[in-house]
Write a structure and sequence with these properties.
This protein is of the alpha/beta class. It has helices at about 10-15, 20-35, 50-55, 70-80, 85, 120-135, 150-155, 215-225, and strands spanning about 40-45, 60-65, 90-95, 105-110, 135-150, 160-165, 170-180, 185-195, 205-215, 230-235, 250-255.
Length: about 260
């Protein structure tokens, strides 16, 4: 089963408080610093389409690719419910960020929600960067976020529990991390338990997501090997300098 296979059913509820609008506006601003007037964007790891929808509201044309067929189905269902002006600016398809080739180029490529950190081997990382490069013209921009190594090692991932209610459905998610320092990875086991109102029985699904954290020298090297120049790396959403407390970092790269 692919990552997010079962998890996809509860994804939007679990992340309903995520600031998709703010992250999308920040992403758009950073991309336009490198490509003024950018309009056609490719998203690698588009999930259920929340970032795409917000960027479409800003006037961009979005093509989203996601590994999970379940996620793509959710994204298409949500797109179909939008007004025609927004709906026509978005399209989604299933594909692997490491290997998909759409046969066209875009003004810019972006990848959010730490999709890059799911590339746990050097081969996977370079393959995803090659995909981004293949869909950009020279001078095009690639923006992404990732887990920042110094913060992960400083803060040490801990067990977390989150509870949510939506109508008659109550969700509990337990995140249990296992730090693998020799591999620069954290294996996070997510267990989501759903219970309907007035019901004693519950449904539980569990998935383990392996996440890689990165340090700037290795990212700089990998980007260079893929034909990119690293322009900057900053805290995601704020643009603050990276530090030991910056768990979620972002980077902007220009295709040479």
């Amino acid at each position: 089963m692919s990552v997010f296979g079962s998890y996809a059913r509860y994804y939007d509820l679990l992340y309903r408080d995520k600031d998709y609008a703010g992250e999308s506006a920040y992403t758009a601003a950073r991309l336009c610093e490198i490509v003024p007037g950018a309009r056609e964007l490719l998203e690698l790891g588009s999930g259920t389409g929340s970032h795409a929808r917000e960027l479409a509201k800003l006037g961009f044309e979005l093509t989203g690719v996601d590994l999970s067929g379940e996620m793509v189905a959710h994204a298409e269902a949500r797109r179909a419910a939008l007004e025609p002006e927004l709906r026509d600016r978005m399209r989604f398809s299933q594909g692997d960020a490491r290997s998909v080739r759409l046969g066209r180029t875009f003004d810019a490529v972006f990848s959010l929600f730490h999709v890059l950190s799911y590339q746990t081997t050097n081969a996977d990382l370079l393959a995803m960067l090659a995909t981004a490069a293949a869909h950009l013209r020279p001078g095009g921009a690639f923006f992404f976020d990732f887990w920042y190594g110094p913060a992960v090692l400083s803060e040490k991932p801990a067990v977390r529990t989150r509870q949510l209610q939506d109508g008659d459905v109550a969700l509990t998610r337990v995140s249990e991390p296992l730090l693998r320092e020799n591999d620069d990875c954290v294996d996070v086991r997510y267990t989501v338990t759903a219970r309907g109102a007035g019901r004693m029985d519950a449904e539980s699904v569990s998935e383990t997501h392996s996440m890689r954290y990165f340090f700037l020298p290795e990212l700089d090297l990998a980007l260079s090997q893929a034909g990119f120049e690293l322009v900057f790396a900053r805290e995601m959403g704020t643009g603050a300098p990276l530090g030991a407390g910056t768990f979620s970092a972002s980077a902007l790269a220009r295709k040479r």
